[in-house]
């Protein structure tokens, strides 16, 4: 017998998750809600889901698990409410708007056995998984450098920038999570630089449109994370892992949004990736499939709230580093 899942928040990612869940084997039913009743009704009708008034109604409906895709400020209270109700949780990143709030949630969760999975989807992309397996299997020898890139094709709306918390908390966290996961060690030092050459909206909110962050891991590996809001060729998300014995890459497919200038070389020759949902469609499906295993009790959470908290601390360190123009030790920000 399959599971019935609730979905709270039916914006872009919430509606996308509902679509994915509706197609997953093992999902028998969906209960959905959004603060906009018309959106709730429309999504419910489209996917044959049950529409309810609010999150409390989802928790009371007898669902086996809940997917939280509401606005970031709602994440922490919804996670805790679901856990208090004994309902396994999948929540989009971040755990909470600030690292301190995330810390408080993680502290609360220490006394609970209800599983919580945070949505860092790159952990489920086949090539990224293969990169981690190569590291774990020792194929690369000892690691010296890992590079992660997230280049957005265009800036988000101004109202999003104003509420995002900055490029490190909003965008770079995906890179911070994947390099921490692939390297398998903790970051000890962070050094970030950033600039603004585009829309003044970023500077107006104390943010930058382009950033590079250098991470030093406890085992000596160096991480380089590159981000920008301006990559007109497309959505560029790649990973390189270099070791003493071998080097591997992820994200170098035919749709990589780069123009190769090597004479006689056509690769990459496909239409460039333009949108993160298209780039990571299989990863989103795999992470929700993994959540069904978490609900069934056949697998532990593949990305815990504690994992997400470590990423939040790295983002805090990067934000502080940019502001102070200096390297920041993780011990300065981590509680």
Automatic annotation (TrEMBL):
**One Pfam family matching this protein:** GFO_IDH_MocA
**Keyword Phosphoprotein: yes or no?**
no
As for family, the record states: Belongs to the Gfo/Idh/MocA family.
Q: Where is the Gfo/Idh/MocA-like oxidoreductase N-terminal domain?
A: 6-120
Can you say what this protein is called?
A: Gfo/Idh/MocA family oxidoreductase
PANTHER family reported for this sequence: BINDING ROSSMANN FOLD OXIDOREDUCTASE, PUTATIVE (AFU_ORTHOLOGUE AFUA_2G10240)-RELATED, NAD(P)-BINDING ROSSMANN-FOLD SUPERFAMILY PROTEIN-RELATED
- Provide this UniProt record's keywords sorted from A to Z: Oxidoreductase
Do you know which InterPro entries this protein is assigned to? Answer: Gfo/Idh/MocA-like_OxRdtase_N (IPR000683), GFO_IDH_MocA-like_dom (IPR055170), NAD(P)-bd_dom_sf (IPR036291)
Any idea where the GFO/IDH/MocA-like oxidoreductase domain is?
A: 128-248
